[in-house]
Amino acid sequence: MARIYLGTPFFNEEQKKRVAIAQRLLKQNPTVTDFHFPFDYQYKGASVVDHKGDLFGSLEWQVATYRNDMNAMGQADIGVFLYDLDNIDDGCAFEIGALRQAQKPVVTIFCGNHEHYSLNLMIAQGSNMMLTDKEALNDTNDNSLAKIDFNHIINTPVAPYPVF
Asked: Which Gene3D superfamilies match (predicted)?
């Protein structure tokens, strides 16, 4: 049974919809013991949505958020990322690198309109398994988050987009 770190930007309605689908599918997966979604564990409740006065963005919040996310990645067995190609998020790129440095596999799900994309080689080669949202966020697909065997990640050596 795998513990998952679910990383994604969470700043617009489309991203939030994807997270809800991913969480539902991961809950159905018999190889997943649990998953950590950082936005569910905001320091003192401060977030992009609710700043909690002056706490959000403060040094206190930055340090606590960074450490909490790093701890969660340390406890995870695998990273799963909803990587939004229409709105690249530096935090996701950092987290993918941190998990790979820790020798943990990363499943990257490329989300967006899927037209004319290219990938940075660090994301393409830093991802063990690469899927599109049309595959991974679909209940009926064999590569659905509900069906992937997270105990045996099958590496995807070729990215679905050109790599630079």
From this structure: 3.40.50.450
- Please check the confidence at residue 76 and state whether its pLDDT lies above 90: yes
Q: What is the pLDDT of residue 113?
A: 85
| Contact status, residue 94 vs residue 123, Cβ threshold 8 Å | no
Distance CA(141)–CA(149), nearest Å, equals: 13
Residues with Cβ within 8 Å of 141's Cβ and at least 6 positions away in sequence, in order, are: 134, 135, 147
Enumerate the active-site residues: 95
52 pLDDT more than 90: yes
Give which of 105, 146, 121 is closest to 5, Cα–Cα: 105
pTM for this predicted structure:
0.95
E strand residue ranges, 48-101: 78-84
Residue 116 is classified by DSSP as: S
